[in-house]
Amino acid sequence: MTEAAKPAADIHAYLAELEDIPGTRVYTAARARKGYHINQFAMSLMKGDNRERFKADERAYLDEWPISEEAKEALLKRDYNTLLDLGGNVYFLSKLFSTDGLSFAEAVSTMTDMTFPEYRDMMLKGGRSPIGNRSIKGGY
Amino acid sequence: MARLTAGVGSSHVPLLGVAVDQGKTRDDYFGPIFAGYDWTREWEKAEKPDVVILVYNDHASAFDMKIVPTFAIGCGEHYKSADEGWGPRKVPDVEGHADLAWHIAQSLILDDFDMTIINEMDVDHGLTVPLSMMFGTPEKWPCKVVPVAVNVVTYPVPSGNRCWALGEAIARAVASFPEDLNVQIWGTGGMSHQLQGPRAGLLNREWDNKFLDMLESDSDAARWIPHIEYLRETGSEGIEMVMWLIMRGALGKKVKTLHRHYHIPCSNTAIGHIVLEPAPA
Fold this sequence. Notes:
The complex is a heterodimer of chains A (about 140) and B (about 280).
Chain A: H1 11-18, H2 29-34, H3 36-44, H4 48-56, H5 58-62, H6 69-77, H7 80-85, H8 90-99, H9 104-109, H10 116-124
Chain B: E1 3-10, H1 14-21, H2 31-47, E2 51-56, E3 71-74, E4 78-81, E5 94-95, H3 98-110, E6 116-118, E7 122-123, H4 125-135, E8 144-150, H5 160-175, E9 182-188, H6 205-216, H7 227-234, H8 242-250, E10 255-266, E11 269-278
Parallel strand pairs in B: 1-9, 2-8, 2-9, 3-6, 4-7
Antiparallel strand pairs in B: 1-11, 3-8, 4-5, 10-11
Helix pairs in contact in B: 1-4, 3-5, 5-8
């Protein structure tokens, strides 16, 4: 006797929905593949010696990694939205926040259209509302 | 036999660890957050669990992108606090319970959960912040810990249903461990928060509280919440709440709520905390 198999989830529909959220890059397998070396570079900053070498010459340190020129520029500029587009993930990129001595909230605020004091104020007032922020297609 | 006596849900925001480590837990910002844990700290002193099965996610500390286990269980004797880029938190080492952990790991694999076994790792704020919230700042943690690490970063993360079922299987495994142990299970992470992109800072008090209501009820409806709903309603990192379902699944059909707390904000995040115990059906 075998049990009836559960219908397989539709991975294509699942992945398409993940792209329908305004201002959000869900860390999908496609992004994880694209950003692999960006994230592994960021992980390398967990080691104090690497942090020192990176701080001494950021460009030279980045040149040791098989990362695209676009991603290197974005890393040098701390352009986190571009890094998300290139497959960076915030938990990995946070190793760069701490190397820079930036709090998580301050680093996160640079990805929004607000200054850090404005962002902090928004959070104290209850955060960003989900209304109008749930779906690109649906606009709700 | 080992007894699963309670379940605890809690956020594990790293800033809470900073507040503990810098003695700021009663200032204007952190006071209302920590006050919501006072009841639990007293309760834990009375309960004296022998072991906590602590469900959490690693934040690029023990695991990098080389290996991404969906469900992993710590079977080691002890774990050190991870250096997350600021130096390790100065908290006691975490003592494992290798006998119980290996028993659970073996039982889960026979029960169709193909666990990854961890023998050595450092544990980050995902694990040490909940310990600080529940136990304060002791010289030594008052219980042993079996870490259960869940991938909630690289998609697809496990479904709510799978997490719930894992909780049920953990409960069966605990019940068949011969030693008389008082065991708790904690689900950590969440609640609503988004740490990335132009939508960062999203919080959803209404949805979070609806989720807490669901955990308190007899229904298992929460296990069917699809990933997209967490993402749309609670921000990209709100997905961590699937880890609370492992805790809730382990407690059985009926639960009694002992304590509940909710506060906005802590840094980028909504703080949620709940203490449940299994109730007779």
